[in-house]
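Progress narrative, Year 2. Work on Lycopene cyclase from Nocardia uniformis advanced from sequence curation to structure prediction during this period.
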Amino acid sequence: MSSDLLVCGLGPAGRALAHRALARGLSVTVVDPNPDRAWTATYAAWADELPTWLPPNVIATTTDNPTAWAERRIELRRPYAVLDTPALQHALPLSGARIIADRVAEIPRPQRNRPQSARLLTGTTLTASRVIDARGLPRSPAHAEQTAYGLIVGRDRCADTETLFMDWRLDNGASPAAPRSFLYAVPLTPDTVLLEETCLAGRPALDPAELRTRLHHRLRSRGIEFTDHDRVERVRFPVQGGTPGRRTFGAAGALTHPATGYSVATSLRTADAVAAGESIWPPAARAVHALRLAGLRALLALPPRDLPLFFDTFFTLPAEQQRAYLSGRDDLRATAAAMTTLFTALPWRLRRTLALATLGTRASR
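Result:
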């Protein structure tokens, strides 16, 4: 039995796509090794990135002005939302879809005048008018990754901790010359807070065991109590390696921002267009993606000591330029303007490093 749409993978991107396709009246088949698996990761987004069709209860908490600490404290004038993960999964029902618990072994390239297909590990071949790979990205030594280690603690134990989008201060026990990590601190509920030591991007990224050591050191230095019974969150995923196009979606479709690691809001926001068969990769979006990859190369090339200066400079850009770089996935002019403004505001020694990294050349030491 063929379908209008076959979605491979039921993470947030794949489930959102299948849900929006069902809302359009399409026949949908979904394949995932564990389609009933409950999501446990923490998802967050700038509030203005979320689509209007999401129900309000999907947002667990909102902070109007989160803080970034680099070389100084900076308030970010943009509301930041932490999602209620179970509520998000529940808000994407798949009623009416054909759900298959299996693993996709191969998605052959489409042939003219023939249905698209996917071959499963059990040997079954499924066909559909469109097959979209939303299985995420495999790990690879060639791809930069983001890693994090976090603890979920009671708000009463960190009542003086504000919402921290990034905190690069060096109270985590690491040497100033060591690869850097920052503290990410967000309220999950009125009573709980996630405190997470994060390696933004590395090739290789910092090991979660090292991040655990740094987080414990940082919390002790700030007088925040924690126990062996606190719930732990571990994060590791590639921030590059996706392929833009009509046959992929989510992280597999290059919707992860390579310089920040965010992808869920973009997947939710673009799911309707992809379900409708539209392309979300016009030339401007491909050009922005290339610029963002250049931004990732720049981050990977910066000496650890200079990361706070880089982010201090970024977060003092005009708000519309910050928003363009972080969220404007097809606004080429605004993205280029933001990157140009940032580049010219940095000291010459950093500009040289960034220019060489963008061109794929190493700076001499």
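Residues 283-358 form one domain. The longest helix spans residues 283-301.
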